[in-house]
Design goal:
rod-shaped; 271 residues; five-stranded antiparallel β-sheet; Immunoglobulin-like
Length: 271
Amino acid sequence: MPAFTTQIRPHVQAELDAAASAEARGHFQTAFHHLERAHVLGQLSTALHVRAHLRMLAFALRHDRLADAFGQLWRLVGAALFTAFGLVPLGNTGGSEVSGWRGQPVPGDLQRVLDEARSRATVRSARAATASLALFVLAAVALTGCGTPPRDLDLSLDRPSAAGVYRVELVPPARPPAINELHSWTVRLAGADGVPVHGATFAVDGGMPQHGHGLPTRPRVTAEVGDGVYRLDGMKFSMAGWWEVKLAIQGTPGSDQVTFNTVVSQPPLQR
């Protein structure tokens, strides 16, 4: 009961502090009474239940009460093992002179503290659950948005460059590559008049706009393999979804750039 533990912890600590203060003054009976009150308040929390018995064990050892110390040892083990399952006798004061299996009436002032702590813990848990649900819904909406490309996405792989300097065609490999598989594409480059352009250089960029990350590799155009035809090596898609491939082109007709969209729809298989 982490929410309950948070609410009841200060009250348990106050009783433990009162016990230490009374013991320091030599009021041993009063000190142990405060330890019992700490036990009653904290016995629904494993951490606080164990702590109360540890303090009782230390008290017994300091005052050479070996029988009480032995009684606290098995109660300590029981507190550690069974509290989380609710197997505790409510109201039991925790002393070795009291049966560890018998419940006892809870004093009125402690009952009020326990009721208030439970009430606050319930409210806090409800708020946490509401917040978690809201985060889940937002995440689901975000993931849905990230996983669905825009309906009007232009998937043409043959288009003019941004300023119309070039006509560019991006040709994918004949066999669709697997996720995380390195592969090559082909770039066909012509001027606005349709004449192939030789000797051009390219800077390659891209990524997933909906995920906010770039390409997982650094692709580059490695060779001109034909009449205005270039090989683009080092391509890789790390997941399914909408990817952009951007080419910044420098050639005799001038500088320009072009962006292509492609949707990788195959399942994410490792190769």
